[in-house]
Amino acid sequence: MKKYYQLFSMFLARYLTYRARILIWMFTDSSQFFLFPFLWMAIFAQTTLPNGYSLRGLVTYYVVLAVVSTGFISHCSRHIRTEIIDGMVSRRLVVPLPYFLVIGMAEISYKYISASISGLSIFLLYIFARDFFIFPTSFAQWLMFVFSLGITFIISHLFQYLIGLNTFWWEDINALQTTEEIINAIFSGRLAPLTFFTMSIQQLADYLPFKYVAYVPAQIFIGNIGVDQWWPVFAPAFVWILGLSLLIMLVWYRGLRRHEGFGM
Amino acid sequence: MKKYLKIYSILLKNAFSRDAHYRADTITHWITHIIWLGMLYILVDVLFRYTNVIAGWTRPEVFFLMNIFILSQQIFLFFFRDNIYQIPNIITDGKLDSYLVTPANTIFMLVTKQISLRATGRIITQTFLLGWLLFHYNLTISIGNGFILFFLIILGIIIQLAHGLIMNTLSFWWLRIDNINEAWFNFGQTAKYPLTVLPKTLRVLTYTIIPIAYQNFIPVGVGLGKLDFGFIGLTITYTIFLSFLAGQFWNFGLRRYTSASS
């Protein structure tokens, strides 16, 4: 356990060296949601909101998305791509630490900083702007929300890890990343709550893991998913975690067979 | 002028030979572009499920606005984007030395070095799509307004360039801020939507400190007759002001640069 803590500290120190970078990344992750509340307010100024939503709830939805996106979504594919292309992965292979955990600790140490700032933002909103937003009303709801953030991180991390490993086959994974981002944007509820979409898209979203990285945490936060729904909400997420983990193992071992390390 | 045209023609030849090596990359990016357009279609469909007009903009007008935004972004990518994105690394790694000793304007060399021919397919796709939109939705733009639209798009691209240069000049003070371009790219996506949904104070910011309105909102607004001709004057004035500011700020930042390799 000590070696993982050391790894965590090492990555943390590295990230803290370039603090401006962290703030810029946080702005990058959260700024995409800036306009949506205004857009929906303009739309629903003329018509009634769908069931289960109020303007306050809709604004809260996007604020939660910004917080989740900033503090809990992994972006490790870029890191993995650089390590594979630069040959760093070859050096990692001779270290007595599983590569998956090294990348995991790198991401956790980064998220430790961004999630702290995100948490602080929610706390400040709760203290100073409680009347403008909807907040969880019970401890159980807070607990479920925090749990969903963990699921958000794990699923996004596994997906990003899988995309990163594709570098073993294609050096440029930009197109793959962009395609994943587009699909993710629609089916995660980042553009709009999934209930605003057509029934066919909603049904498709139910079979995909993307809703766990945005829609589910936000819905729990604003109370549209009740605390009595733990099992139906999270059971499919566990199936996805298991499936993605197995796929990663398969891709990792196949990728290593293709990998050529130079200069060791 | 003749010297710069010659330099640019050489850079263009380089671009052809470079992009010939990355044909697969060009095609995958084009396919991604088509998927992205599909996503935008779904989004507009969702937005207009609940209303016929968003802050004074109808569905065809929003489509037109979004597609002009994409066209403007692709033209910017073709000429400048990759070069602007490289500036922080060039400054941080000390590679600026080689630009400073070149017998040509440093800013010109920095922002024109790489021409991204891979954007050509997307520019052509967008042009056809815009033509189809005008025809399909019966959007009428007079020839005069069409020229004004085109002229304002060009000024919008110059504003993007000047703004990009100002942001990246900050690298002289803060190292490793290459992600500032991604941040701006993400935030800039806001311009896809009608900015009339924003409260007046925030809208003023999009004309000044965060000038995203010039990319497509003002050109399309004036082109479709939704904004008055005073915005043409505003765009011209702002283009001159920001270009001048970008040049001055670059020269100011350059004083902090310390050579790393020569």
Structure description:
The complex is a heterodimer of chains A (264) and B (262). Chain A has 264 residues and is mostly helical. Chain A is built from twelve helices and no strands. Chain A is globular, with a radius of gyration of 20 Å. Chain A starts with a helix and ends in a 6-residue tail after the last helix. Chain B is mostly helical. Chain B has one domain (2-254). Helix content of chain B is 70%, strand content 2%. Chain B contains eleven helices and two strands. In chain B, strands 1-2 form a two-stranded antiparallel ribbon. In chain B, strand 1 (53-54) and strand 2 form a beta hairpin. In chain B, helix 3 packs antiparallel against helix 6 and helix 7 (143-169) packs antiparallel against helix 10 (217-223). The longest helix of chain B has 34 residues, at 59-92. Chain B starts with a helix and ends in an 8-residue tail after the last helix. Chain A binds chain B through residues 18, 20-21, 24-25, 27-29, 31-32, 34-35, 38-39, 41-44, 46-47, 50, 172, 174-175, 178-179, 182, 185-186, 191-192, 196-198, 201, and chain B through 25, 28-29, 31-32, 35-36, 39, 42-43, 45-47, 49-51, 53-55, 174-177, 179-180, 182-183, 186-187, 189-190, 193, 196-199, 202.
